[in-house]
Structures are given as C-alpha cells and as structure tokens.
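Now for one record:
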Amino acid sequence: MGVIVGIEGGGTKTGCAVLNEQGELLAYAEGGPANLNFVDEATQRESFETALNGALQGIEEPIFALGYTVAGTRANWDWLLERLGNPPAYAIEESRMAMLSTGVEVAHGVSVVAGTGSLIGGFKDDELVVQMGGWGALLGDEGSAYDVAMRGIRSAVRAWDGRDRENGLIHAVQQFFGIEDLRELVPIFYQQGVPRHKVAGFAQSVVETARQGDPVAKLILARAGFDLARDAQACAARLFTRDDEFTVAMTGGMFKSKIFRTAFQDFFELIFPHAEFRTPVMEPATAVARAALRRAGLR
C-alpha cells in the first residue's frame, strides 16, 4: 500500500521516521531546528529537507500518510505535501506524541516534555483535556534545556564577578562559548545574538559539570526538576485525585539527567503516589508516524 512518514520538528532538531503499514520502522534521519518562533522559514525548510532526504533515501514505495508535530508557530506544509505526492496529513499534538513515545497506546495521565522547551498535557481516556506551558523561552519553558542552560550561565557569571562562590560552571561556559573572560558573553548575547537551540545545548554542559560533582550544577538540575514537577502536579490535579493511578510520560533530553529525573519523580510522588512513570522507547518522529498510522485506520 505504501509507507507512513512521521516528522517531528523541535527547537533543536527535526526527526523523520518511515514506517511500513505494519508499523515497523524502515528508516530514521534527523535535520536541524524547526521552531518558527526561533528560526526563519528557510532554516525550517532546510531542516525538514535534510531529515526527509535522509529518511527516504532508498524508499521506493509511495507515501500513504504523513503525521507531523512541530513546536511553535504552524509550519507551511504546502511544498512538503506536494513533494510527497499530497498524501493525507495528520497533525499530532506534541503532548500526544510524548505519551505515545513511551509506548502508551491509549493516553491516560500526564505527558511532560522537557526538551529545548517544555510542555505539559493532561489526558483522560485518550482525550487531551488540559495543556499547560509551551510559552517559549521568554514567557516560560520552566524545566527545559533552555531554562537549565540559562540558570547555569547566570550562576557562572555571578561567580565570575564575585557575587557567588566560584564553581565549575565558569570553566564550562569558557569551553562552550570559546572565551576566557566571561564578560565576552555580553557582546555574544546582546550584539551577535545566540540562537535559542545553541543556548539550550549548554544544558548538557550543566549535566556534565554536575556529574563531576559540582554542587551548584547539581542544585540547578534538582531545582529545575522540582519546578517542572510542580507544574505537572497542577496539570494532574485538574484531572486526577491522590488515589488515582495514571501514567506520567517523562520525555525530552532533560530527563536523561538522573538528578533532574529523580527530583521530578520524588516531588511529583508526594502528591500522586500511584503515578506510573514512563520514559521513551522510541524516537518522537516514530511516535508521530505511529499516530498517523492509527489516524489512517491501519491500526
């Protein structure tokens, strides 16, 4: 019959997965950032094309259906649909994609995305009922990689000029941005401009610094996990009681940090002790493609 394509565009990367009609993964590839709140349309299109070209290389079957999830402003899909032969296209909510990526077929619980940005969705019996967060770097994104990165950078500059005790994040900032004097950050941020996805990349440096035992980096990760758990509790409280059993899908790169993940789980469980925590078992784009497969009536 053909193949199903799933595209997931985030603030840092774009994933593209190709499935056969039995739901088996045939190919996967990645491109650059695709959130139109932070990159222009030309960059988004390049990211889509890179991911598509990589995933569809060697695929000869026609495209039966397309599933797509893109963070931020709605993308222009006309050119992409035309290129793929104008297949039926299904918009998959980011929160649903997150839940599906943990292997949950029928969403019932809270999905939490902590990637470049952050987003929380609440489901009851497979219906998306509540959505919180998703306000972007200037208005929110608590617990996201961008949030953690900025906390780390601010801690480094405070220590650099003596407002806080010296910590390992100073060296991490020097390495990441290729500078010696941290005051060089001022023209980098205010004159040259730093893309949001590059700033978010510094979150990994915070994680590595914490692994090396730095107490300030550890505290940043724990506080960010705590803040996100508090927001997730607010979402869960709209739908569930303390005694209810439901799923909490923890997705996005920040949950790869044990300190962050543990802080999130421990605080969330204080209010909802029967929550079942799940982490991804597939790439987000694969989850999008599987959702499109269901929407197309093949599963």
